[in-house]
Amino acid sequence: MGEQLKIFAPATIANISCGFDVLGLCLDGVGDEMTIRKVTSKGVRITKIIGQDLPLEVEKNVAGVAALALLTNLDRELDFGFEIEIKKNIKPGSGIGSSAASAAGAVFAINRLLGNPYDQTELVKFAMQGEQLASGNAHADNVAPAIFGGFTLVRCYDPLDIISIHTPKELVATVIHPQIEVKTADSRAVLKPTVTLKDAITQWGNVGGLISGLYTEDYDLISRSLKDVIVEPLRAILIPGFDKVKQAAIEAGALGSGISGSGPSIFALSKGKENANKVAKAMQSIYENVGIDYDIHVAGINAEGVKVIDQPILEL
Amino acid sequence: MGEQLKIFAPATIANISCGFDVLGLCLDGVGDEMTIRKVTSKGVRITKIIGQDLPLEVEKNVAGVAALALLTNLDRELDFGFEIEIKKNIKPGSGIGSSAASAAGAVFAINRLLGNPYDQTELVKFAMQGEQLASGNAHADNVAPAIFGGFTLVRCYDPLDIISIHTPKELVATVIHPQIEVKTADSRAVLKPTVTLKDAITQWGNVGGLISGLYTEDYDLISRSLKDVIVEPLRAILIPGFDKVKQAAIEAGALGSGISGSGPSIFALSKGKENANKVAKAMQSIYENVGIDYDIHVAGINAEGVKVIDQPILEL
Known about the structure:
seven-stranded mixed beta sheet; alpha+beta; four-stranded antiparallel beta sheet; 316 residues; 2 domains; Alpha-Beta Plaits; homodimer; Ribosomal Protein S5, domain 2
């Protein structure tokens, strides 16, 4: 008894242009810190949330719900429990996987404290229950990269099949978060239930090109493939200045740019940190000109996913 | 003057389950032989076709049309011409790229005899003119693998962007051709102009999985990804016994099975030649039981594409 883990729970970018609902990537250095402590009293408690006003009730908190999903699945009853503290750096609703970070962090740490009874795909399943609470949709495109790290493909949900995709070392993300609210419900509502076969073929050609470009580290091919003819044209309208920010990113040398998750954050991918910084300047200049507040991050790709940053052994 | 090339023009499988209109692969040992000869009289002539009753008129022959497309594009007028002989082993209408082989072979050989002024992608463009004649649709999903070899992805047509995909060494194809006619017009007519977003996402998840499995030589992942939820359910009905043949292939150990191109050939992919032979037996037993004639091939993947098999220098 008495162990605790301090972990880093990373932000993630879902969809990545052509890969709507299947692709995601994990960011380096952008994310929450969580402390998960094994305690003598049974069950799960969220003891503290710093940085955001989020519910402490376990059943209303994504980390709590994900943790309960894991514990309920265990084939034994524990005679101890867990306390969770969250230092929330990722703003909820920003479109870079805020709820996914909390859910992924909780299940990763509890699994570790239990001696790793579950593999990464099983952890994704539990974390998806947190996503269900957050958005009404148990999707995996943020929790998968948060847990696996790097680029991930959610090939299939039934059964859940998550593939780690090779990540070129020089790929750097720029993400800008305009301080406006886009409700997940709205971003779902603008989608159409059908698409033309022609557009679908274009999209899966680009998915094939992007995956190929990632494996062969062909930055030109990655750039040519970072296109979304299906979702971006519908959702872009919900994000003020989207077209201008994207254009500024491309003109500044980005390989591609698109909506991060369901927005409102806009991401760009570049080759190398220097380019990514130039792209950041170009993107933020658009929001500065019109007076929209923003956060901006320049981040490499985090190949590890959730990770332990401190593991003191406490004597209780 | 006086050079001639004897080449092997390979059969190809287009679509490959999830990769409708974008993926293709090149077969080893199944294909036509063509002899292309530089002659003093200008223009292109088809001098002989062995094995099939196909038009000798240049403008009505896919090899002729493709050759003319290349020659018309040259920035100089030649003071010589070309004669083409075709030994046609691939049956037209079989669904394994019969027209593509002739078109690809013609442009490959003429390009070689001219000192290779064009790259592979440009050759695909010329060969697509042959496909336009053959099917009314200048598609590249057979000519691309015929020219590049291995697995290819036609990411985009405008501009044409063809990607060579890594091909695992142990992958072996089985192709069965039931001797029935499926008109290309019919196989196009059953397609629907729209698809559900849900099915489209499933399909591009599988495209991503298949491409990833090819690069990592993960045969299980290749197997899980060889699924087509969009086109196969509509086209299968045009091919007698499709479901049974596919099921027999899978039960005999194939990684996956589907319609080759627009049919009627049915392909399966297996790990290793031994498995592919077992799969062949299982597939042919279905047609034997119902008395449908068939051709069957077991073939490795041809990484080279069209190739020179003999290059005598003739003295005229």
